[in-house]
Amino acid sequence: MSTRRWIHCGLCSALITASKETKFYHLSCLDILCRPCMGKTNRGTTCPVCNNPISHFSELCNSMSRREKMLYHAFPAGLFQMSCQALLFQQKHRQRLVHTILKARDTMKRLDALETQIQQQIVQTQRRKTPGSEPNGESISLNAHRLVEGN
């Protein structure tokens, strides 16, 4: 972890140096203490800065957890900008998905209406073609013959 000029002990205000002659610790209460001031934590149980209980602490170094390292990021504005870009990207794709779903829903409604129309046409066609509802073939030919002869 590279040196940050703002990192200091919350109790004695000692600044972290590039030579790292003094170790610094990140506490669970989010305070920072130098090694000499860690001795004032009541055996690592209470923070001397905020008086909150300490559940854990870790040395400021590259082996810290990713979550802890994020607090010490050199360019927090850059992190914010990256987060904003990620949010905008995700929102754009969510909106496209919603638009696609709504369009598909509209298409399904139109297909359902078309299917209903086709079913109604099939029923009407079947009624016209049902035996007994239409003159048989013999009477059709007789009627056609009468029309030709003019009777």
Automatic annotation (TrEMBL):
<dbReference type="InterPro" id="IPR042123">
    <property type="entry name" value="Zip3/RNF212-like"/>
</dbReference>
<keyword id="KW-0469">Meiosis</keyword>
<dbReference type="GO" id="GO:0019789">
    <property type="term" value="F:SUMO transferase activity"/>
</dbReference>
<dbReference type="GO" id="GO:0000795">
    <property type="term" value="C:synaptonemal complex"/>
</dbReference>
<feature type="domain" description="RING-type">
    <location>
        <begin position="9"/>
        <end position="51"/>
    </location>
</feature>
<dbReference type="Pfam" id="PF14634">
    <property type="entry name" value="zf-RING_5"/>
</dbReference>
<keyword id="KW-0862">Zinc</keyword>
<keyword id="KW-0479">Metal-binding</keyword>
<dbReference type="InterPro" id="IPR001841">
    <property type="entry name" value="Znf_RING"/>
</dbReference>
<dbReference type="GO" id="GO:0007129">
    <property type="term" value="P:homologous chromosome pairing at meiosis"/>
</dbReference>
<feature type="region of interest" description="Disordered">
    <location>
        <begin position="122"/>
        <end position="151"/>
    </location>
</feature>
<protein>
    <submittedName>
        <fullName>RING-type domain-containing protein</fullName>
    </submittedName>
</protein>
<dbReference type="GO" id="GO:0016925">
    <property type="term" value="P:protein sumoylation"/>
</dbReference>
<keyword id="KW-0863">Zinc-finger</keyword>
<dbReference type="GO" id="GO:0008270">
    <property type="term" value="F:zinc ion binding"/>
</dbReference>
<dbReference type="GO" id="GO:0007131">
    <property type="term" value="P:reciprocal meiotic recombination"/>
</dbReference>
